Amino acid sequence: MLPLGLSIALTHLRHRQRQTLVSLLGVSLGVAFFIGISAMMQGFQRDFIARIIDVQPHIIVKDEVRAAPQQAVERAFPDGAVSLRGLKPREEVRGIRGARNMLASLEEMPGVHVAPALSGNLLLRFGGKDVSVNVTGINPERERQVTHLEKDLLSGSLDALYTTSNAIIIGEGIAAKAGIRKDDLISAVSPVGVVLKMKVVGIFRSNITLIDNFETYTLLKKAQILQNRANIINRLNLRLDDVEQAGTLAAAIERQFGYRSEPWQEQSRNVLGIFVIQNAIMYSTVSAILIVACFGIFNVISTVVFEKTRDIGILKSMGFRDKDVRRIFVMEGLIVGLIGTVIGWLMGWGLIEFMASLDFQMEGFIKAQGFVLYRTPKHYAISAAMAIASATLAAWVPARRASRLNPVDIVRGAG
C-alpha cells in the first residue's frame, strides 16, 4: 500500500491528466534533446581534438616573440616621457638563432621528440590553375617522430622525398582543386621569385579540411632553396609522450629561449573558442525547454492547490503539519520530473541511434562520414539532475503557498 502522501499526490496528477501529460512531454523533450545534442556536439569536439593531437605537433616553437622588444632608450629611461619616430626595422633574415643548440637542448628533455622545419608560402601552377599553399620543409626521419604524416598518405611515401629530385607531397584538397595526381610535374613559385619544377610523390588526407586544402611538404633543404633562406629554420615541432603537459612545457620553453612557443590548444584556439560558444548555446536551449516545462508544472500544481483548498483545510484539521502538506505538492513535481526523465532517456537513446544510422559525407573543420557521436552515462546523469531539480523547484512555490493555508480561514471562507 502506498504512503498516504504519495497516494494523494498521484491522485492529484491523475485528476488533471492533460496538463500533466503536457508537463511530462516538456521535461522529456528537454532531457532527450540534451542527450542527443550533447552526444553529437561532444563527439565532434572530441574527434576534432583527437585528430589535432594526432596530426599536428603538440608544441610549435616559432621564430617570433610575443611582445615587441624595447628600444635601448626605453630601457634606459623606463619612467621617462620617451617619443620615438622614424624607426627603421633592421634588415635581417628571420629564423631561429642557435637552432642547433636549442634542438639539442630540447632533445635532452624526457618524453620530448623534436623536428626542425622551415615553413613559408608557395604558389603551385598546374594545367592553367594557380593554387596558393603553405610549404613546410622537413626531415622525413625526424618528422616521423612528431607527426603521423606517413600514416595519412593515400599514395606515395615519405622516403620518396629523398629518392626523387625536387619532390613534394600535397594535401588531398590541393590535388582536387588543381586536378593534380601522383607523379605529375608542377611548377612551384616562391615569394622571392624562385621557380622549381617539382614532382608530386605523395598525396595525404588528414581529414582536417584546413590542412588538406593548404599544406604541402618537401625536403628541408629544398624549402630553404625555394625561400632563399639557406641553413635557416623558422619552426621546431615537438611531440610529447604526455600531451597534457603541452601548455606547461611550452611556457617553460618560451621563458628559457624567448621564442614564441604554442601548445596545440593555442594553435587551435579559434576552433576551441567556437566549441565554448556551441556548449553555451546547447545549455541555453535545453534550459529554455526545461523552463517552459517548469511553467507547465507550476501551472498544474497551482491549479490543484486552488481547487483543493478545502481538502487542504480538512487534511490540516486532521493533523497534517505544514511540512506534510508541502511535501505532497513537492512530491507531485518530483514525480513529473522522474517520469519525464525516464521517458526522456528512452527518447534520447532513440535519437542517438537514429543519428548513428545516418550515412552522409560531412565536411567542415573536419571531414567525417556521418555524425561522430560520443556516448556516455554522464549525459544521462546531467540531464536527470537538471530535469528533476527544475521540476522540484517549479513545484516548491505553490507547495509553499499550500502549506501556509490556515484551516480555520478555509472553513470560514467555505461557510
From TrEMBL:
Predominant subcellular localization, coarse grouping: membrane
Transmembrane segments: 21-41, 280-307, 328-352, 380-397
ABC3 transporter permease C-terminal domain mapped to chain residues: 287-407
GO biological process, one term: lipoprotein localization to outer membrane
Protein name: Lipoprotein releasing system transmembrane protein LolC
Gene Ontology CC terms, in alphabetical order: plasma membrane protein complex
Span of the signal peptide: none
UniProt KW keywords: Cell membrane, Membrane, Transmembrane, Transmembrane helix
Keyword field contains S-adenosyl-L-methionine: no
PANTHER family, per the entry: LIPOPROTEIN-RELEASING SYSTEM TRANSMEMBRANE PROTEIN LOLE
Membrane topology field: Multi-pass membrane protein
Keyword Cell membrane appears in the UniProt entry: yes
Entry's family note: Belongs to the ABC-4 integral membrane protein family. LolC/E subfamily.
